[in-house]
Amino acid sequence: MKKFIATLILAAVAFSPAHASRAQLPAPNEAGVTMGHVHLNVRDIEASKKFYLGLGGTSAKLGSMEVIKFPGVLFILRKADPADGMEGSSVNHIGFVVKDGEGLMARMKEQGVKIASNGMDWRGGYVYSPEGVKIELIPRPTLAVPLQFDQVHFFVADPFPGGGSAWSQLQTWYTKVFGAETRTTVLSPPSAGNFASAPMSASVLAGVNFRFSKVDAKTMPTRGRAMDHIGFEVKNLEAFCKQLEAKGVKLNVPYSYRKEEGIGIAFVTDPMGTYIELNEGLGRL
Prior knowledge:
This protein has about 280 residues and is α+β, with helices and mostly antiparallel strands. The protein contains 5 helices and 17 strands.
């Protein structure tokens, strides 16, 4: 882990400002937190690049690591053999809203990508990366850009550590820890294909939807799978980490700061096993 952190921090120095701007990420919320990146374990870098570029991303470099930029998020590709795909983990899928859902789904189908309906016919649905990262595409014809990062969708089974309904308690945890704003509880669409109808609630974190669905089967931690972890960019990260510890949140990797690079970093895990990287500095590079 220490070797990986050092690699990430040193690599950040080579991440040119021309490749990514601060404006690409959503503005932080009142807690100083915004969505930053999704870190993926991929067997074949070139095959994964082809998939994500075909989805609509643009290529960049983070030191020796490949980065795919999308409006609202960075995807970081790390060459590794993932233990499994995304389904079955605490984060079932991530998602984008897209201007031309039907056209994008048709293009992905032509490329031989695995796709599935989400009950909205073929204007939108799910696409799967070569490693099994599950991505929902939701049509939004009024969107000003071709696509925009939209959601992180958690599937949560009882019991929750310490008691209570797991899906609602996890939502409360993200509110307490990262300042996510709770939305009115909603129900998912009727069953269609592999999309199961289940109770669902939603929160918003700096413009990104965090959705929480109750499921029966126990889910597994994300670490080591196709989607290894999600990342947040955090203002005043050192102070933020101290606040987390005061709230009883354990840091898997304590805060560290490299003065020469101007990068802060820490790691935490949510109560249901989602690994989370915290950064300060990557978002302004």
